[in-house]
Every structure is written in C-alpha cells, then in structure tokens.
Amino acid sequence: MGGVDEDEEGEVVFSDEVLRAMPVATEMGELGPEDMQVNGLDISQQQILLARGYRVFLTRGQLYEVQIAARETTKTPWSVCVRRLMDIYFDRQTLAMGKATSHGFSNNPARKTLNQEVIQAIKAYTVSKYLTTETLVMRSVAIYCSDVRRTMEGRRKGQGQPSK
C-alpha cells in the first residue's frame, strides 16, 4: 500500500503524506451513528489521528464511544474523556504502575512515566474539545492512575471492589 509500511515489530507505519490526509479527531465535530458509515460501508474501524502533530491513532468507532461517554455525564465530561482515552491506549497494569510525567516524586521506583506522546495527544484533544486547561487534564491523568492503582491493590488484598 502506498505510504503504509510495517516496522520491525510489525506495527503499521504511515508516511507523512498519508498522515496529512488522515482525519484528525481535534478537527472533527461530534460524531453520530451516521458518521460510522459512508455509502453503506462501515467505516467505524477507520484509523484517525487523535491530534495533529502526534503519531497517536484510534478508530473512528473508538472516538465515537469516547464522545458518547463524555456526553452522558453532566459534571466533568472532559475528565470522562481523558479516562476513556487512557483506557484505549494503556492496559490496567500500565496505568497502575504509571505516572503522568517524569516530574515529581514517587514512593515506588518501579513506577514508570506513561508514553508522553500519547499523554500529550490526549491533552491536546481534550483541551481543544472542552473548556478545560492542560493542568486539569494532567491532574486527571494522575488521579486516574492512582484510582486504577488503588482498585488493583484492593483486588490483590481480596477485597474485590473498591469501597465507595
């Protein structure tokens, strides 16, 4: 395919030309069910960029699901958006052992900084779509990692679900 290759690990690599032509989530409006089809063809698996300038991808269907979840909350849709996007890019173990930035202090030396290209793309998307700040987005990333960590620690101790 012109402009699309695979790297050593078998990951798809898009050329700059393909990336420039690819839809970008920050430049799209709210998606609806009608945006999942074109001429009767399912395009929900179409790859799109989360934000221009970052090689961070998701499918049109994933973006639609994130937008639905954010719309269903009344308090902080941007925070739900951040959490749902993080769930797309990171597994629970990575989130539990991750931290938002390389700055700051951690009692656990095993805690690793999350992929910053992904975090920056999430931040760019969320700030562009919601009335929020970069600081609040980064705080939400850190809190979500802490919430996942706490949930997983509770399960390891045999408590099942976290207390409410």
Features:
two-stranded antiparallel sheet, globular, 6 helices, 164 residues, single chain, two-stranded antiparallel ribbon, Arc Repressor Mutant, subunit A, alpha+beta
CATH topology: Arc Repressor Mutant, subunit A
Largest sheet, described in full? 2 strands, antiparallel
How many strand units? 8
Alpha carbon gap, first and last residue: 51 Å
Number of helices: 6
Contiguous low-pLDDT stretches (5 residues minimum) are none
Percentage of residues assigned to helices: 40-55%
Q: Give the integer mean of the pLDDT values.
A: 87
Query: Compute the gyration radius: what is it?
Result: 17 Å
The total tally of domains equals 1
Structural class: alpha+beta
Q: How would you describe this structure to a colleague?
A:
The chain has 164 residues and is of the alpha+beta class. The chain has a single domain, classed as BEN domain (Arc Repressor Mutant, subunit A, Orthogonal Bundle), CATH 1.10.10. 45% of the residues lie in helices and 12% in strands. It has helices at residues 16-21, 60-71, 77-89, 92-96, 116-129, 134-156, and strands spanning 4-6, 12-14, 37-38, 41-42, 47-49, 57-59, 98-99, 112-113. The strands form 4 sheets. It has a two-stranded antiparallel sheet with strand order 1-2. The longest helix has 23 residues, at 134-156. The N and C termini lie far apart (51 Å). The model has no long low-confidence stretch (mean pLDDT 87).
